[in-house]
Amino acid sequence: MNLNRLKAGFSYIELMMVIAIIAVLMALLLPAVQQAREAARRMQCKNNQMQIGIALHNYQHSFNCLPPGTINETGPVESEPEGCHFSWHVQILPFTDQQPMYEQIDFSGGAYSEFNATVRNAALSYAQCPSDYFASSPAVGVNPCNYAGATGGKNVPINTDNGGLLYLNSSITASQIRDGASNTIVVGERRLQDIPLTEFGWGSGTASTLRNTEVLINEAFRNGDYELPPGGPDPLVATGGFSSRHSGGSQFLMADGAVTFMSENIDINTFMSLGERDDGQLLREF
User: Fold this and answer.
1) Per DSSP, which regions of 128-173 are E strands?
2) Rounded Cα–Cα distance for residues 179 and 276 (Å)
3) Exposed, middle or buried by CB within 10 Å (0-12, 13-18, 19+), for 172?
4) How would you class 52 by CB atoms within 10 Å of its CB: exposed for 0-12, middle for 13-18, buried for 19 or more?
5) What distance lies between CA 16 and its chain's CA centroid?
6) Per-residue pLDDT for 140 more than 90?
7) Are 183 and 280 a contacting pair, CB within 8 Å?
């Protein structure tokens, strides 16, 4: 037996080199995998908004107007569980294949009625952006949504005189969108729990489902915590702006049914005009 014969195997240096190569490959591949997953989530989010757009158009064809953004006897709408407050999401349920759910709603009791608890706590799959929903911690007992209607281009309370397409007791017809349907936002994204108010879910026509375009996209998260813009309304009647977890901006549904991605660095005047239905402003590219 030859005791001088060398044993086959890896040296310590060779083993470390293999580990280093594997680590480099993982560092290169993981971002690509994450980007692919985000691209898929972003596509699903776009499909959700397109489904909402189809439902809004079908509602418009049935009633010759868009649904009210929220319903209440008086305004401005306060983010408190008091009042009627049925949201535009509730109005389009029959047009999203949710007729049985719609028929269970007690419209005489208001959005927060105990008789509507079962429906209020039900989940709407098309109302959840996959990029945000599983990254957030939704309030217990409600099913929030990531898609909010545009009340207008001004950071004012939700009331009967807003300049957008979905607001208090609204019933906007196609002829009233004088700036053009392709130039007017009807629905945009919102990240969950981005303002210090109780989350009331998709059935509540409050800040939970309505936003404005005077607040820039993702402005609430640029400094960490949500802060109202200088001169903004009282938090009780504030709507806040649009936001998302998609990198660099957010997706919006236009009144013509198209879904477009807008940068968080969009010109503020352009963004405000996109939230108005009849301001007569010539828009820059967005």
Assistant:
1) 147-152
2) 8
3) buried
4) buried
5) 47
6) no
7) no
What is the three-class DSSP state of 199? coil
| Side-by-side strand order, sheet with 249-254 | 210-212, 147-152, 185-189, 249-254, 259-263
Buried b (16+ CB within 10 A) or exposed e, 130-153: bbbbeebebeeebbbbbbbbbbbb
Tokens matching residue 243: 């936001």
Give burial (CB, 10 Å; 0-12/13-18/19+) of 156: buried
Q: Given the DSSP bridges, would you call strands 185-189 and 249-254 parallel, antiparallel or unpaired?
A: antiparallel
Q: Express each pLDDT in 94-107 by its tens digit.
A: 999 999 999 999 99
Per-residue pLDDT reduced to its tens digit, 206-237: 989 999 999 999 987 765 544 444 445 676 78
Strand partners, 249: 263
